[in-house]
Amino acid sequence: MGNLWSCICLLFPLIILLAPVSIGQLSPSETRTLFQVQKLLEHPQVLQGWTNWTNFCYLPPSPSLKIVCSNNHVTELTVVGNKSSPSQSPKPIDSVNFSVSQQTLSKNFSIDAFFTVLTRLSNLKVLSLVSLGLWGPLPAKINRFWSLQVLNVSSNFIYGEIPQQVMSLKNLASLVLADNLLNGSVPDLESLVALRELNLSGNHLGPSFPSLGNNLVTVILSNNSLRSVIPSGFKNFNLLQQLDISSNKLIGPIPSTLFSLPSIQSLDLAQNQLSGALPTNISCTAKLKYVDISRNLLIGKLPSCIASNSVNRTVISSWNCLSGANSSYQHPFAFCHKEALAVKPPAEGEKEKSTIKLGLILGIIGGVAGIAGVLGLLIVIIIRRSQTRRAYGGKFDGSFADKMSVRSSSVPNIDSRRVPQTMRSAAIGLPPYRVFTLEEIEDATNNFDPTNFVGEESLGQLYKGWLRDGLVVLIKCVKLKQKNLPQSLVQHMEALSKLRHLHLVSVLGHCIVTYQDHPSTASTVFVVLEHISNGSLHDYLTDWRRKDVLKWPQRMAITIGVARGIHFLHTGVAPGIFGNNLKIENVLLDESLTAKLSNYNISLPSKVGSQSPLNGLDIHNLSSANAEKEDIYQLGVILVQVITGKLITSPSELEELRSQLEKGLAEAPSKLRAMIDPSTRGSFAYESLRTTVKITINCLSTDSSSRPSIEDVLWNLQYSNQVQEGWTSSGNLGTQL
């Protein structure tokens, strides 16, 4: 007995050490608050699994949700959804008609009520609400978050002005409000001495430059409406590492002190109206790695420290009026002189008058648009209630899809200036676009070692390469004919820099090599692309050795990604890119099964009558309308293969499958279910399948004019996915309706 007690005494401390250490059981009030958050937010799906037995402080890791507890309180709440921000939405959004977007939360959502609930988590230090479809003005009651250190509500539909009450958040270290609909002037943030990160990009803020504290490390104000000079006060920002104020309307000279700030690493001033000449004797700090002053109105010669690229510093200075630079990439001096005269800031009196007139005009427009918005809103409410009733009731009557057939709409093109930037490189984990040297290309491919040769496409060869920072890339080598004018080639290179999107194999940069003495070849273009190594959609549907069989929800997510990639090519750049060689082999999947389109139509100027060298499709012989509809048809072919799991090798096979799907729709649900890939059975809602099949058949219409637009395809796929999510959340996974 004595030995037993001895063992127990020895083991007891060990048992205590091995027992899970509770960070603290949440107070009942904060537990109730989290359930209210669950009720007010309509997604992501991970919230819907909460029950009375959920221990919020020990939730499993999830990219959509993070809750951190300390001393019986929630100190961090991070929720990430998948609803597009305004400029990523299939339809243009503004502060009048935002609520009719399929990407926002429902009409019943109240941002004021939502933040009232959140402020009950009085010990929050980190609040991150990203891509959730939140809409409305940011409530002034955010000043109740007395201990908040990080506030991130990016990629939502927040409109109006930034409330003055943000200045009361004295502990705030990071403020991220990017990709919303905010407008007006930014409050004076100079008093926020703890603030280190400020990201307000992708809004409509301006025209004055905000007052900022000099303890900031990161300042991102790109893609706004700033129209002023760059403040001289930046000379005191000794901690500043990144300054991005690109794509505004900033005027006047560039303060030379920006280049010599002691901590500065990245400086992006591109696409403004900055003018004058930089002093030739300015110095650059050794830490400065990236400078972009392109597309301004600069004259004179560049200072020696940014006169050219080097191993340690990338400099982009094209499309100014700089002397001593490559003239193919510069405007003539007269262009910058004339434009600089035209962009002087208006006098204060004129500015005030114009503001009053603008207010009256906007008031009138707002009144008319408001009436139209209310009517549209009523229609949306009816539709959404119908959707919700079917989705969450577990029964689908199909009447909406029948009447809808294929949703059609007339949607204007998205602003091509804003869309590529909102899908900016940082958001999709890519380095900034850059111009490579031939030495870098040769170094990446080990002098085009045959072991790095991947294949040949039309007029271009493909090589795998490794950049100096270790990034794996794919390099296309394209030889161009003599008739290519340098100016035309430069314009095409400018278009390449915009091809950045989550659902594209994005272009990272290029290199142009000109051979003056070659009789038939004027130049070679090396296009550097991101490398996706996880295989193609074709591989996932055919290689049964893969452990991860694609179920229906995964297939829906992939096809929506494909449609979004096509939508960006059609509307996200100007002019749109059509004839994109859409094949199931060209849909690549990364490690998270995100779809990325490869081998799309990156057209370069080639000899008259020849093929587009990077694609193999002679798009010049097709009208844009026909090429657009051809893309829709090819998307339909991909959808058939995703639905049935059968690869199509001939037109007769495609026609047979299309006919069988059409017959299954017209007859009984069991007939249509029999057509589906057997590996997906039990994982789909019949109404989701039915809607997807209907839009697929419409895509394959023999009459090209009857095929839907990419916006219509995307809408139907998103509706199908919404039905699927409702069905899954109702506990139907593994059963079949």
From TrEMBL:
GO terms for molecular function: ATP binding; protein serine/threonine kinase activity; receptor serine/threonine kinase binding. SUPFAM superfamilies: L domain-like, Protein kinase-like (PK-like). It catalyses: L-threonyl-[protein] + ATP = O-phospho-L-threonyl-[protein] + ADP + H(+); L-seryl-[protein] + ATP = O-phospho-L-seryl-[protein] + ADP + H(+). It is found in: Membrane. The lineage of its organism: Eukaryota, Viridiplantae, Streptophyta, Embryophyta, Tracheophyta. Residues 1-24 form the signal peptide. The keyword 4Fe-4S does not apply. Coiled coil: none annotated. PANTHER family: LRR RECEPTOR-LIKE SERINE/THREONINE-PROTEIN KINASE-RELATED, PROTEIN KINASE DOMAIN-CONTAINING PROTEIN. This is non-specific serine/threonine protein kinase. Gene3D superfamilies: Phosphorylase Kinase, domain 1 (3.30.200.20), Ribonuclease Inhibitor (3.80.10.10), Transferase(Phosphotransferase) domain 1 (1.10.510.10). One of its GO terms (cellular component) is membrane. Keywords: Glycoprotein, Kinase, Leucine-rich repeat, Membrane, Receptor, Repeat, Serine/threonine-protein kinase, Signal, Transferase, Transmembrane, Transmembrane helix. It is a single-pass type I membrane protein. Residues 448-719 form the Protein kinase domain. Its main location: membrane. It comes from the Eukaryota. PROSITE patterns: PROTEIN_KINASE_DOM. Pfam families: LRR_8 (PF13855), PK_Tyr_Ser-Thr (PF07714). Its EC number is 2.7.11.1. The chain crosses the membrane at residues 358-383.
